[in-house]
Amino acid sequence: MDGLQSTIKLNNGVEMPRFGLGVWKSNNHTARDSVAAALRDGYHAIDTAKQYGNERGTGAGIKLGLQQAGLKRSDIFVTTKLYNGDQGNYDKVAKAFEGQLKDLGLDYVDLYLMHWPVDATYIESYQAMERLQKQGKIRAIGVSNFDNDRLAKLLESAEIVPAVNQMEFNPTNQEKKILQFDQSHNVQMTAWSPLGGGRSLTNPMIDKLAKKYDRSAAQIILRWEWQRGIVTVIKSAHEKRIIDNSHIFDFKLSDEDVQTINQLDQGERGLWYNDFKWHNPNGEFGNSVAQWDDTNEQL
């Protein structure tokens, strides 16, 4: 049955929840509070990254949320990502990963993604991630923001096929060629920015469908992604919205309406994807951890 505990089997047999909370652009205190709220409200998947600057807050939220929800660590699925500035040889990646585990307050993570394919280092970095998975502190490894050329090159040398490719995916940016390539190699597409900001949420057709089904625009989009088989990471700092976003399991879009949304693709990537300096690990957006005013405060 569809629901927040529904999972999809990754290519290594690990079960991953299909719907989770992300914490991008959240400071440590907001991450703590939203993660705890999500776990209280039935979410079983949490997605963070070193580059977000809030792994400590996320870890505090996991600890608090598990207590409040009466859950065990093994009941939830935690994803974090290899920071661009930590890419390189095994020793560098392993040291960074251990630091991330410490910040999260965890003994292992369920999924470790390479955040960006920094051209000079992503092959070597992925090989280091493979070694870490074999050591048992990571249940699955994958990538994020990989186009087809880079993923194809990675697959030439990979011993472990990435379990996931996390991409921007929403009605106006559906990454059709990347999705097709991922599916052909048994790599699960996961959506970040699943609502597409104003481009998707304010689309007249989405609004029309929201009225038809008596749902919010966000719920229409999230249900569409669910029916497309996309794992979704949705960010919110407000508990009411965290709850509302999860109310997509008591209705279903018709096949015709799914196809209608499929036609909204404009191939327009938002946010800062196009600004990344692929060849330069120290590009403007490529190698910076967000620093928040509360970074050093007690959580």
Automatic annotation (TrEMBL):
Gene3D superfamilies for the chain: NADP-dependent oxidoreductase domain
One of the Pfam families matching this protein, by short name: Aldo_ket_red
Presence of the UniProt keyword Protein transport in the record: no
Keyword NADP: yes
SUPFAM superfamilies, sorted: NAD(P)-linked oxidoreductase
Keywords recorded for this protein, A-Z: NADP, Oxidoreductase
Residue span, NADP-dependent oxidoreductase domain: 20-265
Family membership noted in the UniProt record: Belongs to the aldo/keto reductase family.
Protein name: Glyoxal reductase
Organism expressing this protein natively: Lentilactobacillus diolivorans
